[in-house]
Amino acid sequence: MARSKFRDLHVYRLAVALADDLYSRIARWPVLARHTFGEQLVRAADSVGANIAEAVGRGHTPDKRRLLYIARGSLYETEHWIIRAERRGLLELGTSARAEEIARALNGLIRNPG
């Protein structure tokens, strides 16, 4: 099977790198934090890359955009949970800036989904 072209997208690589980093950090959080919002953060972060990948596989621009908007919604949810974790001392301040970088790239892809 040929390599899927979504893996070459800069925004996809940024999204999965953030999701993988968050996963490894959350695994070390106290039980209460992992269960109350850590699991939700992992799901939201993983959803960003998954929806970008699915969008690339769609043939029609409206379908692609719809999935990219879903990815952006998941990214904003991810950013919300990261900010909560920063304020609670579970993640370093500034971690949410990574979500902002992904949002800029994702907005570019939404404007021109190819």
Entry summary:
The protein has four helices and no strands. It has helices at residues 10-26, 31-56, 61-87, 96-111. It is elongated, with a radius of gyration of 14 Å.
Biggest beta sheet attributes? none
Task: Count every beta strand, where a strand is a DSSP E run of 2 or more residues.
Answer: 0
User: How does CATH name the architecture?
Assistant: Up-down Bundle
The proportion of strand residues reads under 5%
Contiguous helical run count: 4
Helix content: over 70%
The CATH topology is what?
A: de novo design (two linked rop proteins)
CATH class annotation: Mainly Alpha
Considering the protein shown, what is the CATH homologous superfamily? 23S rRNA-intervening sequence
Mean pLDDT across residues: 95
**Parts with pLDDT < 50 across at least 5 consecutive residues:** none
Shape: elongated
Distance between the amino and carboxyl termini: 22 Å
Q: Structural class given helices, strands, pairing?
A: mainly alpha
Rg over CA atoms, rounded to whole Å, is 14 Å
- How many domains is the backbone divided into? 1
- The SSE string, one letter per element, is HHHH
